[in-house]
């Protein structure tokens, strides 16, 4: 699971969960999978993701060094080194094994072979 995907996932479908975001990452295995650097794509995407949640996820996995520690990024923050670090965090860091944990209920969703299983039982909704 890439951190770009993680940034979009929520557990608010669960009973008694209001927000369910951001999900906590409990990683057992992560990998860096190289991808072609596309600065224009990253510059556009960074304004569509929740940067604070992205930074927290990167920090949980030990990849936050080089990212500005702030609530959101402005165009002035997007120099080449920041764009390259964002590219790494969004598209190259991959959680292979572990789980995602709802911040409100503690419900865990497994990640196997890089795929998060967000399926819930009928009695959970």
Write structural notes for this entry:
By secondary structure, the protein is of the alpha+beta class. The protein has 4 helices and 4 strands; from the N terminus they run H-E-H-H-H-E-E-E. A 4-stranded antiparallel β-sheet has the order 1-2-3-4. The two termini are 24 Å apart. The mean pLDDT is 96.
Features:
125 residues; alpha+beta
Question: Short description, anyone?
Answer:
This protein is α+β, with helices and mostly antiparallel strands and 125 residues long. Helix content is 28%, strand content 20%.
Which strand order spans the largest sheet, edge to edge or round the barrel?
A: 1-2-3-4
The residue ranges in which pLDDT falls below 50 over 5 or more consecutive positions are none
Give the overall shape.
globular
Roughly how many Å is the radius of gyration?
A: 15 Å
Termini separation comes to 24 Å
**What is the tally of beta strands?**
4
* SS-derived structural category: alpha+beta
Q: Give the biggest beta sheet.
A: 4 strands, antiparallel
Oligomer: single chain
Quote the average pLDDT.
96
**Number of helices in the DSSP assignment:** 4
SS strand fraction: 15-25%
């Amino acid at each position: 699971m890439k951190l770009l995907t993680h940034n979009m996932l929520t557990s608010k479908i669960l009973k008694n969960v209001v927000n369910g975001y951001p999900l906590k990452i409990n990683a057992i295995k992560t990998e860096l999978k190289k991808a072609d650097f596309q600065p224009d794509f990253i510059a556009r995407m960074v304004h569509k993701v929740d940067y604070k949640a992205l930074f927290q996820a990167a920090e949980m996995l030990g990849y936050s060094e080089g990212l500005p520690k702030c609530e959101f990024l402005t165009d002035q923050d997007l120099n080449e080194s920041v764009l390259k670090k964002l590219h790494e965090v969004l598209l190259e860091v991959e959680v292979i094994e572990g789980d995602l944990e709802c911040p409100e209920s503690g419900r865990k969703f497994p990640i196997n072979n890089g795929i998060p299983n967000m399926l819930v039982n009928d009695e959970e909704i």
